[in-house]
Amino acid sequence: MRPRLAPALSVLAGLLLLSGCSTIDSLNPFVSKGPKMAELTPFKASVETRAVWRENVGKSDVYAFTPAIVGNAVYAASRDGTIARFEDGKRVWRIDAGQPLSGGVGADSRLLVVGTPKGEVIAFDPADGKRVWSARASSEVLAPPAVGGGLVVVRSGDNRLIAYDALDGKRKWTFQRPMPALALRATAAPLIDDNVVVSGFPGGKVIAVNAGNGVQLWEGTVALPKGSTELDRVSDVTSQPVVAGRLLCAVAFQGKVACFDISSGNTVWSRDMSSAVGLTLEGRHLYVTDDKGAVYALDIASGASIWKQDKLLNRGVGAPVARRNLLAVADVQGYVHFLNRDDGAFVGRLSTDGTPVVAPLQLLDNRVLVQTSGGSVLAIEAQ
């Protein structure tokens, strides 16, 4: 059964994704006025940015559709059921799933998978877009399915992990845990790493389960809920954890950022930070966007601050992605900002289509792949 106040949280989570609000108070419809969005300030660009190619798959509506990249193929989907494959900016095929979609895209070289608001999980052949199988989840599917190791793992709207056989869609196992009264809607895919499936959960938890049978291996605490009201106590891990070597790192809304030993779940370090959009790992640094829109570079070994970029406050900034010596983030007005990874200074900026970018940015070779809420899919080059 879904948490009793989930419909209200659906509204709040949608606002969180689309409005650039920074706190639970600013998501509350009874609060008269939220924080002011920072204006973009001029700077001297040191890199040239351009869209190498641009396509459109249709609007996302209130959902966050994340493109999938497999080799040089890009798979993208939209609310109206459109799914398309692109290679080098050219459309290979385009299909209609026959019903509205709410989660996607998950893919590997053999399978492409999306989810629907009614909890249907649909798999297609990535070569030609033909339907292969469909299965049922326990509730709406908001996150891209994770595909790999012969499995399709779906995180349903009621925060269950459900694994299906990639060949025929037969259910293999289900993992669930007790849920708090309130929880943000999570749109991040589970992470499959070797024989382990990792996902964030409400209550500030990161949980690793055996990919073969769904048995819990360990539970890590990113943050403990605190406060006097249910809203104050929302402390969810809604973004995808990241892995580098033996480290697994995650961040919680109204909580902390923490790194764990991926084998045991033991905490290596943690520090206060609130984020619902996520983080990325590159080299010796962990890059995090907090819930106010500030971007941080942290030392991966200790969590110590390296730099902070706070000129994008309240702009609905998403999780960063690292490309060579650059870091890219996107905002609610459709701008993609490029920062110097060494000090966080602005080095480039590109406007997309003026609609929010709520899906995580992806790396396509040396380019940044963007899907906007308006349906634009762009490969951006920064040199």
Give your account of this protein's structure.
It is a single chain. By secondary structure, the protein is mainly beta. The protein has 3 domains: 38-63 and 278-383, YVTN repeat-like/Quinoprotein amine dehydrogenase (Methylamine Dehydrogenase, Chain H, 7 Propeller); 65-186, Beta Barrel (Lipocalin), CATH 2.40.128.630; 191-270, Thrombin, subunit H. Helices cover 5% and strands 42% of the residues. It has helices at residues 6-19, 24-27; strands at residues 49-56, 68-70, 73-77, 82-87, 90-96, 103-107, 112-115, 120-124, 131-136, 146-148, 151-155, 161-165, 171-175, 191-193, 196-201, 205-210, 216-221, 242-244, 247-251, 256-261, 267-272, 279-282, 285-289, 295-299, 305-309, 321-323, 326-330, 335-340, 346-351, 362-364, 367-371, 376-382. The strands form 8 sheets. It has a 4-stranded antiparallel sheet, with no helix packed on it. Strands 2-3-4-5 form a 4-stranded antiparallel sheet, with no helix packed on it. A hairpin with a 5-residue loop joins strand 12 (161-165) and strand 13. The chain is globular. The model is unreliable at 1-32 (pLDDT under 50).
Spans with pLDDT under 50 lasting ≥5 residues?
1-32
Q: What is the correct CATH architecture of the largest domain?
A: 7 Propeller
Estimate the mean pLDDT confidence. Answer: 90
Oligomer: single chain
Q: By CATH's scheme, which homologous superfamily of the largest domain applies?
A: YVTN repeat-like/Quinoprotein amine dehydrogenase
Q: What's the gyration radius in Å?
A: 19 Å
- CATH class call of the largest domain: Mainly Beta
Query: What structural category do the secondary elements indicate?
Result: mainly beta
Number of domains: 3
Distance between the termini: 50 Å
Largest sheet: 4 strands, antiparallel
Q: What is the topology, as strand order, of the major beta sheet?
A: 1-32-31-30
